Amino acid sequence: MSSQLALIKPRALRKGDTVGLVAPSSKPFEEGHVEFTYKWLQSLGLKCKVGKHLFDSYSDFAGRDEDRLEDFHAMWADKEVAAVMPIRGGNGSVRLLAKLDFDLIASNPKIFIGYSDVTGLLIPIHQRTGLVTFHGPDAGSFFEAAYTYHYFRKAVMSARPVGVIIDPPPETWKPKYPPPRMVITQGKATGPLIGGSLTLIRQLMGTPFEIDTDGKLLFLEDVGEEPHSVDSMICQLLLANKLQNCRGIIFGESVDCRPGKSRRNTLPLNRSVESVLRERLGGLGIPVAYGFRFGHGHEKFTLPLGVMATLDVRPDSVRFRIEEAATCQ
Amino acid sequence: MSIAKAHALKQNDRVGIVAPGARPASPATVSYAMRVVQELGFVPVIGKYVLSVHGHLAGTDEERLSDLNQFVLDESIAAIFCITGGFGALPLLRGIEFETLEKSRQLIIGSDENTALLLAVHGVCSIPVILAPNLDRVLSESSFRSLKTVLTSKQPVTVKTERQELGANVSISKGYSSLDGVASGTVIGGNLSAVLSLMGTPFEPDFEQSILYLDDYNERFDILDRWFTTLYVAGALKSTAAVIFGEFNGCGSRGNESILPLEDLFGERLLELNRPNLFGFPLGHNQTSQSIPLGIFANLDTAKGTLEFAESALE
C-alpha cells in the first residue's frame, strides 16, 4: 500500500514554531510532567498548545477514545501547529484507528514523533498517507539524555539526512544490559525504514493497518516482555511472511526483556532474547543485528519512517546510516 | 459451513499425548496426564520428546512437531491430547500433516496457547476440535466428567454460566452481559492471546457469523485490551454473531491501578457493535473448567446464561 504512495516530508521544526501536545494513549504519569515538558519546549524557543482533553482520564487512557481523537484531529487541523507530540505512550493508540481521519493528516503534513504505544499511529499514518513519521522520543522524553536530544534535533529540526548513527560513549566501566552490539547475520542492505514496538506491530496484525515490510529495512524493539513472548510475536510475523521479505532487521535494546524482569507471565527454563533472535532470525539470509540504542532506554536515536537507510553488519562492526533527509525546509 | 464429524472415542482407544508448547512442569506432570487418560478409558501413548528441554519449550520445533506428526500419521491413534500450555504451538503450524488429519479426523484436545493448534486444525481441515483443559489442568470431578462427555457422547452439550450458591434454595448466576440477546453461530475461539497470534497469518480464524469464545490466563488487563482492540479494528468482532467469555484466572491490573475491568473495556465495544455478549462461562483455567467442541453450531441465550450446541461434534 505504502509503496505506491509518494513520500511526504514535513517541514523541519524551527525556533518560533508551535508544538501541539496530545495524549492519544495513556494519561500523563503526573500532571506536573506536562508543565515540565512545556518549559523544555520553551527553552528551545518553541511555543506550545495543549490538547483540551490532555488531563482527562478513562481507565488507563487519557480520556475516552472520541475525546482523545478530537484532540489529535484538532492539532493536525490547526495551521499554527508545526509538530504533534504525544506526551507519552502506554496503551490506547490503536483504539483510535477505526475513526482516524487520514485525509486530514495527509493534507496537513507536520512532524509527528513518539515511540512505544505511539507506534500504533506512526505506522498506519505513514502507510496510509506517505507522511514521514518519526520513531523517537515523545514530548515527555526528548530531553532525557543529551544523546536523545542530539538525534531528535538532527532528525526533526534539520532538513539534512541524519547520517551515521553512533553509539553513546559508555558512562562507566560497569556495562549495562544488553551488550552494546550483537551480530546475528552479517551483510549489507539498503531500504526505506519501517518499524517500531514489536507489541504494537503485533497488535496491528490482521487489521487494515498491518505493517508492510516488503523491501524495507525493519527496526523492532520492546520493553518488559519475557523472551518467550518476544518469540511468540516473532513467530507470528514469520508465519505472516513479514520477516522473510524485508531487506534487513535491526533490533533495539529491549529494556527488561529478560526472564523474570517483566510484569508478564513468567515461565521456568526461560532463555534470553538474544538466543531467541538468533534461532528465529539467523537463517533468513538478511543482515540482522541486535542492541541498537532506540526504544525504551534513556538514550535513543530517532528513526524516520519511509526514508532510505543502510545497515552494514560485519563480524567486528555494525554501521547504520540514515541516508535521506526526513524533512524539508 | 459443513463440517465432517469426528468419531466418538471408545473404551481402549489408543490416544497420543504431546507437549506442543512448554515443557511439562516435571516428569510427575506427564505421569499425571497419563493416568487421567487411563481413567478416561483410553490407552495413552506418550510422545518421545515431551520431556525434552529447549528453553521453556518441550524440545526444539523439530522435536515437538515430530511428536505431533507421528501421531497424526499413525492410524491406530484416535485422538491427540496436549499435556500443558505455554507458547510453542505457533511455530509448528506450517509443518502439520493437515491432509492426513483431514481424512483421519483425529480429535485434537487442549487449550491455552494450544488454541493456536486447535484453530489451525479446525480452519484448514474443517473438522471439529475439542477445547478442554490441558491434561495437567484436569483437576476436579466436574472437569473430568465434562471432558469425558465431550469425547464420548453423541449428544449435544450445553454450557451454563457459573452460579453462586447462597443457601439451600438460593443460587445466583454470575453471568454479565453489556447487551442481552439470542444468537446462533459456529463456536470458535479459546485463549485470547493465542487467537491473536494467528491474526494476519494464513491460519487466522474465520469469524463470520461465529459465536466467539475467549479466555486468558495470567495476563495484564492492558495487554488484553490491546488484543481485544485488534479484533475490533480488524473487523473480527463485527463479523461475529456474539462474543462470550470464560475465566480470566490470574489476570489483573498488575500495578496499573486505574485500569477498568474487562467487563467494562470489552463490554462497551460489543454494545457499540450491537453484539450480544456474555461473561462468566466456566471454561478456561479454573479447577472446574468445562470442555466444549469448536467448529459446531450453537445457540446462545444470554438472559438464560446458556450456550446450547445444536449437535454433537461426534458420530
Structure description:
The complex is a heterodimer of chains A (329) and B (315). Chain A is built from 8 helices and 14 strands. With 329 residues, chain A is of the alpha/beta class. Chain A folds into 2 domains: 2-156, Murein tetrapeptidase LD-carboxypeptidase, N-terminal domain (Rossmann fold, 3-Layer(aba) Sandwich); 163-322, LD-carboxypeptidase A C-terminal domain-like (Glucose Oxidase, domain 1), CATH 3.50.30.60. In chain A, the strands form 2 sheets. An 8-stranded mixed β-sheet of chain A has the order 6-14-13-8-9-10-11-7. Chain A has a 6-stranded mixed β-sheet with strand order 2-1-3-4-5-12, with helices on both faces. Chain A is globular and about 50 Å long. In chain B, strands 6-15-14-9-10-11-12 form a 7-stranded mixed β-sheet. A 6-stranded mixed β-sheet of chain B has the order 2-1-3-4-5-13, sandwiched between helices. In chain B, strands 7-8 form a two-stranded antiparallel sheet. The relative contact order of chain B is 0.16. Chain B is globular and about 50 Å long. Chain B folds into 2 domains: 14-140, Rossmann fold; 158-309, Glucose Oxidase, domain 1, CATH 3.50.30.60. Chain B has 315 residues and is an alpha/beta fold. In chain B, 28% of the residues lie in helices and 22% in strands. Chain B starts with 13 loop residues before the first strand and ends in a 6-residue tail after the last strand. In chain B, helix 7 (221-233) runs parallel beside helix 9. The longest helix of chain B has 14 residues, at 27-40. The chains are: A alpha/beta (329), B alpha/beta (315). The interface between A and B is large, with 43 and 47 residues.
